[in-house]
Amino acid sequence: MKFWSSINKGLTPYIPGEQPQDKKYIKLNTNENPYPPSPRVLEAIKSETSADVRLYPDPNAIQLKETLAEYYKTSADCVFVGNGSDEVLAFCFPAFFDPTDTVSFPEITYSFYPIYADLFRISYKTIPMEKDFSFKPGNFPDGMKGILLANPNAPTGIAIGLEAIEDLLQRLPDTLVIVDEAYVDFGAQSAISLVDRYDNLLVIHTFSKSRSMAGLRVGYAIGNSSLIEGLNRVMNSFYSYTLDRIAQKAAIAAIQDWEYTRRICDKVIKTRESVREELTSMGFRVLPSSTNFLFICHEDYAGRELFLELKKGGILVRHFQQPGIENWLRVSIGTDDEMGFFIEKLKTLVV
Ligand SMILES: Cc1ncc(COP(=O)(O)O)c(C=O)c1O
Q: Per the domain annotation, does 313 fall within a domain?
């Protein structure tokens, strides 16, 4: 503590979901994909595993950026890549906001946003949510330097439509709207189609969820070239080799096998919907989800207790000690077998 900076002393760091190393759990706590990455990704990893790892990776990840640019019909200077979308999000703060600025996001959303704001000493205002966890983008105030919008939102799973995002972009042309689409492939519409028309839009994606590559840490942003240059300046003032050689090659292979991604996402969606029905029939309140997880609560059973009992039974889900959602659980969608096991266990707890 003696040598900690005053910023450090004031931080409340993020607590990542457990990655237990002791025993084997059914892991429904960190929204990983239950299916393996595309065989082409695994092949790319193998072929990149050679003595060449003695060489630094391409700091500009140009092949990966070009592959992404081709996929999105844009140019490579409109693409930024980083070590997971968390890193991309983190770089946005020093790239676009000053300590005198204020940013805004919904009161219940991805908990890293206020943490980055605190780390970079940027103040923030949250906008209220309704009882059903919806919020009105019209409530984002004027005068914000930035808005952070997870769409679909996390941990609620609720998506908003593209019209609402476009209204926001038009109403607040001097506010940078950062749309975090970590879960978009599980049922929402991507705002990437709007990037050409709005210079105040940056869209962030990850390979961790729909592409089953959480362990390789790849994220990216698509936006106009001035925003991307801003991110590159920050990255190169911090660390230039954020993506290793293997991750770059694996990500290229994943983009080239979009069909595989679509197929496993559809499987996850199908499982999600059948689990949703089952939970509803057991008396759970289940929010509509456009993601690979469900946000659930039961009025007769405390969220924390259910979390602990499930853990005892070998099933990990996510419970947040955050006011307003203490009674809720976030349950990632696993395979049909894993979800069957989860439901059976839950039936012994909720009677
Ligand atoms: C809304 C949201 N954004 C971003 C991330 C970060 O993903 P990653 O850093 O694995 O790309 C997550 C991870 O769970 C998330 O839920």
A: yes
